[in-house]
Amino acid sequence: MPDVADYPRFSEAEMASRHARVHQMMDEANVDAMLLYATGRYSDVYYLTDWPGSREAYVLFQRNAEPVVLAQLYNHIPVARLLSTVPDVRWAGANTAQSVIDLLCERGIEGRRIGLVGSIPHTQYNRIRSACPEADLVELGGKFRQLRSIRSELEIERFRHAATLTDESMEALKQALRPGVKEDELPAVLEHTYLKAGGYSGIHFMTSMPMRTPNFPVPAQYQSGRVIQKGDCLITEISGAWWGYSGQIHRTYSVGEGPTKEWQEMHAVAVDTFDAIRNLIKDGTSTREVEEVAELVHQRGYTLYDDLLHGANQYPPIIQSKSTSRREGGEMFFRENMAITIQPNVCTTDERMGLQFGETFVVRKNGCEPLHDYPREWIVCG
Question: What is the distance between the alpha carbons of residues 159 and 204, in angstroms, rounded to a whole number?
């Protein structure tokens, strides 16, 4: 049997604190249980169990009873039982929805008020709803995401380590970016940094183009086979991750020469907007205030394409500028120990060219604490 101590682990106190917060959330929502669904690695199941997860899984929390994990697939159960701090780990059976129903009946809560978290497949939800017609199923996903948006110091240390790996990958990219390299060869340069440190890639969005004939407004999610040439620039959005937590950084590179005047002016707007936002945010700052500050981009003759700012790992808040807002929801306030990524993606109004500049911070009582240590500048290669 592998030694659980050989894996990165959160402390017993950390896990107990998370469970206590969940129970407090349940009390505030007046629910008898919380049923959480998630898929993939490092999902919300990881937050509750210290097991990174795999395929689909449910976690049931209940008042005055121990939690239960229902997990797929069958061959994933041994590792789940090894790593999960929730001792009761069960295979979810040949039919996951039926196993959930059986568990609710076993616990005597099939007719009680149950909070739901996660994107439960409609076929599973309908089967649970049909089998438990007396249950009062209420949505708790938003409240749970808000709960998770305030990070513990142990979580922040993971973010910090992931940010360091991300910085190292950006330096590796700088060394590798030369004429003749294909764009779709660059992810291997980045991922090597994470893999040798026990991490993994979060995202590597990149777009290359000639600086004098630009043709794209944002870093692309997929890389082409285009060959890098002298006079190109490469716009980036890069995240290196380590055990459930990722850094994120945005820089622009050019090959063989510095930025042209057009690119230099756009880069300056992105940096000015970034600086204005990071200097504004502290515990208690409103998202409305940040949206107002971001109007600087529009005043300078540009617009924004991507989110202006989001919580690390895509947790709230997620906002744009006042002029480009495209999300539901009202005003939010930044709170101490939120991890956030400030990332203005400045582009021309005709979407002919754009770049992104930013990185990840932790909100503290009196300001923003940086997690990255990579130069805040345009990077010239070759």
Answer: 17
Q: What angle do CA 326, 363, 333 make, to 5 degrees?
A: 45
How does strand 245-246 pair with strand 232-242?
A: antiparallel
Phi, psi for 269 (deg, rounded to 5): -65, -45
Domains and CATH numbers, the chain: 4-149 (3.40.350.10), 153-381 (3.90.230.10)
Single pTM value for the model? 0.95
pLDDT of residue 101: 98
Residue 175, both tokens: 């060394």
Provide φ and ψ at 191, rounded to 5°: -70, -30
Q: Which residues, 6+ apart, have CB-to-CB distance to 198 below 8 Å?
A: 242, 243
The DSSP string of 87-125 is S-EEE--SSHHHHHHHHHHHTT-TTSEEEEES---HHHH
- Give residue 240's region: left, alpha or beta (phi > 0; psi -120 to 50): beta
**Cβ of 26: how many Cβ atoms within 10 Å?**
21
Residue 163: what are its φ and ψ, rounded to 5°? -65, -40
Q: What are phi and psi of 345, to 5 degrees?
A: -105, 90
Q: Taking the mean position of all CA atoms in its chain, how far away is CA 102?
A: 33
The DSSP secondary-structure symbol of 228 reads: P
Closest C-alpha among 25, 56, 29 to residue 40 = 56
Report the alpha-carbon distance of residue 240 to residue 313 in Å, rounded. Answer: 11
- Distance between CA atoms of residues 377 and 382, nearest Å: 16
Residue 316, CB half-sphere, CA atoms under 13 Å: how many?
A: 19
Helical packing angle, 122-131 and 96-106, nearest 10°: 30
Identify whether the C-beta of residue 159 lies closer than 8 Å to the C-beta of residue 312.
yes
Say what the pLDDT of residue 39 is: 96
Given a cut of 70, whether residue 328 has pLDDT beyond it is no
